[in-house]
Design goal:
By secondary structure, this protein is of the alpha+beta class. The chain is 62% helix and 15% strand. It has nine helices and seven strands. Strands 2-4-5-7-6 form a five-stranded mixed sheet, with helices on one face. The protein has a two-stranded antiparallel sheet with strand order 1-3. Strand 6 (284-290) and strand 7 (294-302) form a beta hairpin. Helix 7 runs antiparallel to helix 9 (269-280). The longest helix is centred in the first third of the chain and has 70 residues, at 42-111. The model has no long low-confidence stretch (mean pLDDT 77).
C-alpha cells in the first residue's frame, strides 16, 4: 500500500513525470555516448529532452485522468456500500422490532381468550402500532433516498418531541415485553440538526439500551439545554460493556456481533453509523459503561442555529 500511495502522489503531476522522464533520457544519452564514444552535441541533447517531453506529458495526463476516474468510482462504490449497510441495519433493528410487536398482538388475538373490551383494546393498540410503523417507513424512505442521491446533510431547527414520540411508539411493545421501567424527561427541546439523522441515532441507541437491559430493568431518557447546546442522555441499568469491546465496536473495521439479554442479534454497525452522523452534525458522542451496572450515552448537539 505505501508504494501504491507514493506512485499515486507522483502521478498527480504530469509536469513531475515529464521532468523525471527528461532527466532519465539525458542520463541514458550521456551514458550511451560515453560507452559507444559518440560525441555529445546540442542536437543529441535536444532530442533527449524533446522526445520524452512529447511522450511523457500527454501519457501521464491521460493516466492521471484514468486514475482519478477509478478513484471516484471506488469512492462511490464505498459510499453506496455504506448506505446499503445502514439500510440493512435499519431493517434489522428499527423495522424488525416493531413488526415483532405486531406479531405479538396478533398471537394474543388469535388465542381468543379475552373479552370484547380487551379485544377492542388490542385492536386499537395494533392499529396505532401499524400507523406508527407506516409513518416511520415513509420517513425512512425519504431519508434513504436523500442518502442514495448523496444529498448533503442539511441541519434545521426543530423540536425533538415529534422524533421521540415516533421512536418510543416503535419500541413500545419491546419495552413492555421486557417490563422495562422507562422514564422520559423533557422530550420537548429545540435542536439544530438533520432530523432524519437524529432519529436514526436515537433509535439505534435506544434499541441497544432495550436490547441490553434485562427484564424489569430501567431506562432513563433525558433532554436538557446547556448553553447553546442540547444534551440527549439515554441511560440503562443493563449488562454494560467493557472499554476494550466498546472501542472494538466503534473503531474496528470488523463487525462485532453482540447478543442481547433476550438473545437479540446485533452487529455494532448502527452505533458506528450513529457516531459518524453526530460528528457530521457538529456534535459529540460520549459513552460511559460499567460491565454489570449499565451504560450511559450522551449526545451533545447544537440547540440553536449557529451564527
Amino acid at each position: 500500500m505505501p508504494k501504491r500511495d507514493t506512485l499515486a502522489k507522483l502521478m498527480l503531476s504530469p509536469l513531475k513525470v515529464m521532468v523525471i522522464s527528461i532527466i532519465i533520457s539525458l542520463v541514458c544519452y550521456l551514458i550511451l555516448s560515453t560507452i559507444w564514444g559518440f560525441e555529445i552535441n546540442t542536437f543529441g541533447l535536444s532530442i533527449s529532452m524533446i522526445i520524452p517531453a512529447l511522450i511523457s506529458y500527454p501519457m501521464s495526463y491521460l493516466l492521471i485522468r484514468y486514475y482519478k476516474k477509478i478513484e471516484i468510482q471506488k469512492d462511490e462504490l464505498q459510499r453506496l456500500n455504506e448506505i446499503n449497510n445502514r439500510l440493512i441495519s435499519i431493517i434489522a433493528h428499527d423495522i424488525k422490532s416493531p413488526i415483532s410487536g405486531v406479531y405479538g398482538i396478533l398471537d394474543l388475538i388469535e388465542l381468543e381468550t379475552f373479552s370484547k373490551e380487551e379485544l377492542s383494546y388490542y385492536i386499537h393498540d395494533l392499529s396505532g402500532t401499524v400507523d406508527n410503523l407506516l409513518n416511520f417507513l415513509d420517513d425512512i424512505l425519504q431519508w434513504s433516498k436523500a442518502q442514495i442521491e448523496n444529498k448533503k446533510i442539511e441541519p434545521e431547527l426543530f423540536n425533538t418531541q415529534k422524533v421521540w414520540t415516533q421512536v418510543l411508539a416503535l419500541y413500545h411493545h419491546n419495552i413492555e415485553s421486557k417490563k422495562i421501567n422507562l422514564v422520559a424527561n423533557n422530550l420537548e427541546q429545540p435542536i439544530y440538526a438533520d432530523q432524519g439523522s437524529y432519529s436514526f441515532v436515537t433509535r439505534n441507541i435506544l434499541h441497544n439500551a432495550i436490547k441490553f437491559t434485562p427484564k424489569n430493568g430501567s431506562i432513563l431518557i433525558d433532554l436538557t439545554k446547556k448553553g447553546d447546546r442540547t444534551i440527549t442522555t439515554i441511560e440503562d441499568n443493563g449488562v454494560g460493556i467493557t472499554e476494550e469491546k466498546l472501542n472494538k465496536i466503534l473503531f474496528s473495521k470488523e463487525w462485532v456481533t453482540t447478543v442481547g439479554t433476550n438473545d437479540e442479534k446485533g452487529t455494532g454497525f448502527g452505533l458506528k453509523a450513529a457516531t459518524k452522523y453526530i460528528e457530521i452534525m457538529n456534535g459529540k458522542l460520549q459513552i460511559e459503561s460499567v460491565p454489570g451496572k449499565g451504560t450511559k450515552v450522551i449526545i451533545d448537539l447544537p440547540g440553536s442555529v449557529a451564527d
